[in-house]
Amino acid sequence: MSEIVGKIVRISGPVIEADNMRGSKMYDVVRVGDENLIGEIIRLNEDIATVQVYEDTNGLKPGEKVISTLEPLSVELGPGLITNIYDGIQRPLPAINKQTGDFIARGVEAHALDRKKKWHFKPTAKPKDKVQGCDAIGEVQESTIILHKIIVPPDIQGTLLSIEKEGDYTVEDDIAVVATDKGDVKLRMLQRWPVRKARPVAEKYDPSLALITGQRVIDTFFPIAKGGTAAIPGGFGTGKTVILHQLAKWSDAQIIVYVGCGERGNEMTDVLREFPELEDPITHEPLMNRTVLIANTSNMPVAARDASVYTGITIAEYYRDMGYDVALMADSTSRWAEAMREISGRLEEMPGEEGYPAYLASRLAEFYERAGRVKLLGSKNKEGSVSVMGAVSPPGGDFSEPVSQNTLRIVKVFWALDADLADKRHFPSINWLKSYSLYLEEVSDWWEKTVGKDWLKLRNRAMALLQKESELQEIVKLVGPDALPPRERGLLESARMIRENYLQQSAFHEVDTYCPGKKQYEMLRLMLKFSDKIQEAVEKNVHIDDIISIKSRETLARTGTVPNEEFEKRFKSLEQEMENEFNSLIKERVK
Amino acid sequence: MKRKDIEYTTVSEVAGPLMIVEGVKDVAYNEVVKIRTSYGEERTGQVLEAFENKAVVQVFEGTRGLDTKNTSARFIGETMKLGVSKDMVGRVFDGTGNPLDNAPPIIPEERRDVNGDPINPCAREYPREFIQTGISTIDGLNTLVRGQKLPIFSGSGLPHNELAAQIARQAKVLGKEEKFAVVFCAMGITSEEANLFIKDFENTGALERTVMFLNLADDPTIERIILPRMALTCAEYLAFDLNMHVLVILTDMTNYAESLREIAAAREEVPGRRGYPGYMYTDLAMNYERAGRIKGKKGSITQIPMLTMPDDDITHPIPDLTGYITEGQIVLERGLHKKSIYPPIAVLPCLSRLMDRGIGKDKTREDHAGVSNQLYAAYAEGCDLRDLVAIVGEDALSDRDRKFLQFADEFEKRFVSQGNHEDRSIEQTLTIAWELLSGLPVSELKKIDETYIKKYLPPVKEEK
After folding, report:
1. B329: Cβ–Cβ under 8 A, 6 or more apart, which residues?
2. What is each CA distance from A99 to A103, A315, A367, in whole angstroms?
3. Cα dist. A303→A87, A89, A209, B239 in Å?
4. How many beta-carbon contacts under 8 Å exist across A and B?
5. What is the percentage of chain A residues whose pLDDT exceeds 90?
6. Dihedral, CA atoms, A99, A101, A104, A109, nearest 10 degrees?
7. pLDDT 10s digits, B186-226
8. Quick check: B463 pLDDT over 50?
9. What is the mean pLDDT of chain A?
10. How far is Cα A343 from Cα A307, in angstroms, rounded to an integer?
11. B453 CB near a chain A CB, below 8 Å?
């Protein structure tokens, strides 16, 4: 097809219209103006194409040229993604930094993957092997922990004709040739994939493995499964970003894709600064070595914000196709929705609720549907998963707005953040009465097999206790705590213990920040035992104030900060001490 | 004739702050327009929408007196730029960058696009240098660090201007003598309010280190859109070219947002919440995100935007969107103000997101984080109990609860409240905190490490 060159006829913020564009397709990438800004076609009307421009359009003039690349917006996939940080359209920010300095100038071009860097490639397939999409033909050690499998692109199937020997290659070097029905295809380590199209899979499974995050309130009360979806809505200051950072740090996924979509620049800097220093609790390697970052901060062009979530999920799918468990965090999906709203407004489309476009719900659903635990294409029947956790920033902290509501209709886990809790510095401020997880049954199998047989029972008991507490609090508000019978006051004390010392967890304390599954289980068991003991003592007429002043209560309250290596020993002695103290209280009373 | 000399007299429509010029050629998006009214008065505008032969222009000084017959427009061939120079310090400018102080115009060293470019997240340095403001509720509980953007959410009639002036007066980084400057950007405030700042800066000698951008209540509202961009362009030059530590005070962002809404309405855009345009978040972020530090650069930009919450409503779009962008917020409360507590900072909804990295050993003091969390938790509990007492009376409370109730009162009286000229060091702030905490049972101090309790808790007074 011959080249399509049009010219700008109208500019309105990030949206431009170009004439003479007949022949270009929806969502094709175009280069706009003399500075070659990157844009994407979002509407076609005879000769006129409407384009959203991914860069600042200041100074652009009608009459300047628009060239269609005739290709949809795609990402580059291959070794070199891990530890890198990209903007919304996958331009590497460190490389841009070198090119244009501290500020991001316009019209910069940089390859997502370094073309010069040589990777040590080891073939794992041999000529005459039958290969199909997602079959690995070789591997590259991408970072200290990630073995990057070089996989056949999903749309290719055939017989391997030749493959290069072990050695150092760039991502553009040909490493293999596959004979397909349509002729021979050369494979390189670099492949491209259009971001708005999900990479195909053989079959979707139900998520059943727990994604362990080391966060007590999440793992124990509202767990997410590998391949699951979760939403974290909360007003500003409720700690969405801290929770997402915690999940990115401590989730037991092998690859983390963190998308900063329309949020603060300093938050991305924080990740960049902190992740290389933090150690993954499982592999003891820097967390950065399993992380890909996408940063399109709030002051970067709004159209690229829309692209950033798609860029992120496509990269996540690529690693899934190697058989990895990938977790993607998107902070925040509301900013993405707002980007859609802004573009839609410029297109003068008929608005839906609160000015959002009518297709908001379907776009959100499409995005979350790309998560899942799947059987991969390819002949090996391998599995992989993409879990998606999206922050939602409802205006005024009111969950009845369209983005929250449409998200909740799709996701299976809801972590409701509560401004009241945040004001009291109860962090993570996940409201235990409003939140839910539909994966509880699925993941309880894993917990019961590996951690403790009565896990689900303990969890449900604790939940019931908290529920009961909230009912009692209503009464306390009317009559005061002193008017309650001792049994109920005992319940309040037990619930307070769980609320303040189990649900709360400090992200900034070096030990408390990550709580292994076994420790979570033991803590909960001890706290429920404490609850039982209180009831037992109260039955024997021990005064509630005497119970509150026992020493093991204070020790129990600080169990979160007991180092993970010694908790088993220390918890045992704590349990003993608790029993002794209660026994002596009861003995005294009986005397 | 050069393109930029062509005067178009083809104005076809004037509506609100907008003007449409027909038959134009080669007009760039966001290009600056010089407009001459039929009386020969000159005004400035900017292209909001560019077509092949038509341009929609927003007029900064207002459209009063424009007509569709004699008014002419000249497109000057560049986007809005501000001439920057080190001589700007100590001067006063209006919304179009012209001096207001009867002194000659500055000779710019460079002309910069007022919209600026986003800082590359890779180039940012994470802010972590503690700024001591001398105000306990800020230093102790919501620590400000260099490069942070920390807004003050206020209401009409609350002393937010006094507070901002006090911060500007007292803010310092401990143990260092460094070049610093204040950029003061007034959008739609009254001349009385502006004078308060000017006087205060004069008295403390800060005026010669201050750059002022003024758009007072009776100045054209549309200029308010461009004013913070000018101020921040100047701040960026001072910080990242001249290595100064710049404190930017933006007041009042509510007026800014109103102007934004006015333009959106005039353009007949689809409104978002409460009539504010859907892109208000992005627009505010373009200003707020210009705070920060850059690797390898000495200077920094710290922003204190101020806004009055309409009807004290923190969920109103202006404070709401601001809170989503800034790194925390300081909230003023009418109730405290009525109790004559200055500064009336409502501690519970306040937050400083960058605090954790700016405090602790070698920065403030090792016990700072724990003490701060404990104060928050105890005060929150005390406030809850107040509600309870209102219903059941104080007698129904347990001993423990009564102590928390008392703590909350003492906390407001001794910790929150302080003089307008009282400059408390961080040590003093923490000492007051420990004195207050000593009124609570030691077993309740769960948020503080035991070793610090031993080290800092004053000996308990024996109860009779």
Report:
1. A236, A237, B150, B151, B152, B153, B319, B322, B323, B349, B350, B351
2. 10, 25, 33
3. 12, 10, 36, 30
4. 225
5. 77
6. 0
7. 999 999 998 888 888 888 888 888 999 999 998 888 889 89
8. no
9. 92
10. 12
11. no
Chain A 544-583, CB below 8 Å of chain B: which residues?
545, 548-549, 553-554, 557-558
Q: Tell me whether residues A545 and B398 touch, CB distance under 8 A.
A: yes
Type of residue numbered A574: L
Give the C-alpha separation, A438 to A443, whole Å.
10
Closest CA to B60 of B83, B89, B80, B88: B80
Contact, A256 vs A268, CB < 8 A? no
Angle at the Cα of B253 from the Cα atoms of B247 and B254, rounded to 5 degrees: 160
**Contacts with B, A 72-101, CB within 8 Å:** 85, 93-94, 96-97, 101
Residues facing A158 on adjacent strands: A131
The amino acid sitting at B252 is D
Give me the pLDDT at residue B1, please: 55
**pLDDT at B23 (0 to 100):** 92
* Interface check B124 vs A, CB under 8 A: yes
The beta strand positions in B85-143, using DSSP E, are 92-93, 110-113, 124-125, 130-131
ipTM of the complex as predicted: 0.88
Measured between beta carbons, which residues in chain B are less than 8 angstroms from residue A335?
281
Name beta bridge partners: B130.
B145
**Token pair listed for A321:** 């196709």
Least confident of A496-505, A566-575, B173-182, B316-325: B173-182
Question: Cβ atoms within 10 A of the Cβ of A441, count?
Answer: 10
3-class secondary structure, B213:
strand
CB contacts, 8 Å: B405 with chain A = none
Q: Is A127 near chain B, with CB under 8 Å? A: no
